[in-house]
Specification:
- It is built from eight helices and nine strands.
- The protein has 275 residues and is α+β, with helices and mostly antiparallel strands.
- The strands form two sheets. Strands 5-7-6-8-9 form a five-stranded mixed sheet, with helices on both faces. The chain has a four-stranded antiparallel sheet with strand order 1-2-3-4.
- The radius of gyration is 37 Å and the shape is globular.
- 16% of the residues are buried.
Length: 275
């Protein structure tokens, strides 16, 4: 228990009638108040009233090293050391590259996937208490540095348990690869021993290519599940609506080209008749 040395504590009520020479006087023990004026330094001295005579017992070692400000300084040093320890334990924040982004909400994950365009997006599901995730983290950072065109989204499953449960993430570490209009092209779990699985997927889906249409992101069923538990906004675009808009654009372009071809044919017929 921490207490300030500036105030004096007393514990009254030690009745020693039966233990010390039959004395009827009540005994007091505790820290004695500071001697002298108010400007004098309060010293931690233990005082005991024995048979009407005060006995003073001072801890010479503590007395020599003690100062009124020492408890406060100790508290500051303890807080600083605890902050340093907590930062040292955050292994998932170490050696991150510029193309590695920490996801803090389901809506942020949806928006990041939808705005990725044709770039390869790798979603890394991890947990601070997962030993396999901690061991694999440095290699994932190295692969992210070697593939600057890919986007690595890191999802802390401890902070986003509800979202990960809706996405059926039950094994860690777990990875999902997304690519443009194709959506999720592969998903798997791997460890430091099976890192080849990750490298093969990166080589297969990391090649430059262009896809027709906007990025698909999460499946419609996953979006509906997240929306039902209020993890994302109901106004988020769903894959079906995006696909329908693309199909409408395609049909409009086909119809417009058909009109142009028909108009061209009519022009050719008129020229033939005039000739």
């Amino acid at each position: 228990m921490a207490c300030s040395m500036k105030s004096c504590l007393y514990f009254d009520g030690l009745n020693m009638n039966e233990t010390i020479l039959g004395s009827k006087s009540r005994r007091i023990c505790g820290f004695c108040p500071p001697f002298g004026s108010s400007k004098s330094r309060a010293l931690p001295v233990l005082g005991v009233d024995f048979m009407g005579k005060p006995l003073l017992m001072a801890d010479q070692k503590r007395l020599r090293d003690w100062s009124p400000k020492s408890p406060r300084n100790f508290s500051v040093r303890a807080q600083a050391s605890s902050i340093c320890v907590s930062r040292a334990l955050r292994w998932w924040d170490k050696t991150l590259t510029t193309n590695m982004v920490e996801i803090h909400s389901a809506q942020e994950l949806v928006d990041s996937l939808n705005n990725a365009g044709d770039r390869l997006v790798i979603v890394d599901f991890y947990s601070p208490g997962c030993g396999g995730c901690k061991t694999l983290h440095p290699k994932i950072c190295q692969l992210a540095e070697l593939n600057p065109n890919a986007i690595f989204l890191k999802v802390n499953c401890e902070e986003l348990k509800t979202m990960c449960y809706s996405l059926h993430i039950h094994v860690l570490p777990f990875f999902r690869f997304y690519r443009g209009a194709e959506g999720c092209v592969c998903s798997f779990s791997c460890t430091n021993a099976t890192i080849k699985k990750f490298k093969d997927a990166l080589a297969k889906h990391g090649t430059e290519r262009s896809s027709f249409g906007p990025a698909k992101g999460l499946d419609e069923s996953e979006l509906m599940s997240l929306a039902s538990i209020h993890e994302i906004s109901m106004h988020s675009p769903f894959p079906s609506s995006r696909e329908e808009s693309v199909e409408d654009l395609v049909m409009e372009s086909i119809g417009f080209s058909g009109v142009l071809s028909k108009a061209g044919n009519k022009m050719e017929l008129k020229k033939e008749m005039l000739c």
